[in-house]
């Protein structure tokens, strides 16, 4: 992640996305550790099962909290799920859902990126 004048900058080639959370620009990334955390939280046996669950498109607010929290931790931010549940995300619930969609798209390489183009290819 790069930082310019104290502002976080996401690197999509590393699977990072940027979001305004509690008034601060933060970088989120679903690292292998974050994905392992989500596999456990969602009782998924493997990444394919986890991706299939997410692609179903039916998520509870608790799911959004877990994914955002894991992404924040993967991006170097130290927040518990309970902390994330209390945070204000730009755009409210719709903004949180969009954030999760962007994070999953850049992680699993599915769908279009936030700029409207294809997601980066796996190197």
List keywords for this structure.
single chain; 123 residues; alpha+beta; two-stranded antiparallel ribbon; 5 helices; 4 strands; disordered N terminus; disordered C terminus
| Quaternary structure type | single chain
Structural class: alpha+beta
Mean pLDDT: 85
**N-to-C terminal Cα separation, in Å?**
18 Å
Strand count, sense and barrel status of the largest sheet are: 2 strands, antiparallel
The arrangement of helices and strands along the chain is EEEEHHHHH
Task: Give, in spatial order, the strands making up the sheet with the most strands.
Answer: 1-2
SSE blueprint and pairings:
Blueprint: E1 2-4, E2 7-9, E3 16-21, E4 24-29, H1 32-41, H2 47-55, H3 61-74, H4 81-85, H5 92-108
Antiparallel strand pairs: 1-2, 3-4
Helix pairs in contact: 1-3, 3-5
Structure description:
The chain is an alpha+beta fold and 123 residues long. The protein has one domain. The chain has five helices and four strands; from the N terminus they run E-E-E-E-H-H-H-H-H. The strands form two sheets. It has a two-stranded antiparallel ribbon with strand order 1-2. A two-stranded antiparallel sheet has the order 3-4. A hairpin with a 2-residue loop joins strand 1 and strand 2 (7-9). Residues 1-6 and 111-123 have low confidence and may be disordered.
Short description:
The chain is α+β, with helices and mostly antiparallel strands and 123 residues long.
